[in-house]
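anyone seen this seq b4? input:
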Amino acid sequence: MPNFMNASQHPIEFNEETQWFALQVDTKKATLAAAHLQHKGYEIFTPFYTITRQWCDRKRNAELPLFPGYMFARLDGRNRLPVLVTPGVYGIVSCGKQPVPLAESEITSLKEVMQSGLPFGPWAFLAKGEKVTITRGALAGLTGIVVEVKKTLRVVLCIDLIQRAVAVEVDADLLSSVKPKAVLRA
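predicted toks r here
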């Protein structure tokens, strides 16, 4: 039986020092790792999507991790040892030895997509493409890259740090192109 620290005795204080970080996890132990981290008082976000699996005699819905091998945790990057010693956690996504925080807007965008009720799923990471903003509807204000799949438009939201992305289906009339800001030269 694992010996957990009582989260109420050692609460994690969320302030301007705590940020979202991507954690690399063992895909088979991700649920265990999330439970351990939550028990330690960390805010954990592991997005899932639903897929319909077809067998010869039936169909069944399954929930799969949106980013296999990754989960997100809000923590103080200077105090990362309790996270790193958690069973199932391989490490924090870093540049060199310095953990790199995710932009708050990327996590917010993911949460909004999941709560929208619109179809979404994993997508190949795209570094370049036309950036668009969704102008109306449940996802108004989100920015991503537009792609077309089988005559259906999708907006790809990228999580740059882990080079993963999510595609959400949208109507063309909800999109507005994001123009790059002009650079003035003297």
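Residues 46 and 71 are 5 Å apart (CA to CA). The two ends are 68 Å apart (CA to CA). kinda curious what u guys think
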